[in-house]
Amino acid sequence: MTSALPGLPALPTLPAGYTVSTDPDRLDLTTVHRWLSEESYWALGRTREKQEAAVAGSLNFGLYEDASGAQVGYARVVTDRATFAWLCDVFIADDRRGQGLGHALVAAVREHLAPFGLRRTMLATADAHEVYARLGFAPLEHPEKWMTLGAQ
Predict the structure, then answer these.
(1) 11: how many CB neighbours lie within 10 A of its CB?
(2) pLDDT tens sequence across 123-136
(3) Residue 108 DSSP one-character state
(4) Among candidates 20, 24, 1, 18, which has minimal Cα distance to 113?
């Protein structure tokens, strides 16, 4: 376990046999769209066009099995690469869950963002608070200061 960010928990290393890449050409956009539009609770029904626009405007992370080259996970970050980031669309293929891959993928995202010196990285989750807490994420200290425009 290592961490490039002082004061934050050490991070797990990616399990042997897996690689994280930010190369957009490696993304299996058909699989990512199916995962998110059919299997996630937050993006059900998202159109392929909407997903491709989201990918085009974001920093994308694919998790790949080395032996087959198959994509087994995905995460997306919306960021200005200077002050702020929003981590979203974190997904691990159903048959790969329970192996620590989601934890390791988010750890890799956190370390990739570290050199940017971001003031804040946000995310929202309905069911994985403990996973993100182990990586240093915490509830908003003053949620009453935050507002949203759009669907809640």
Answers:
(1) 21
(2) 999 999 998 999 99
(3) H
(4) 20
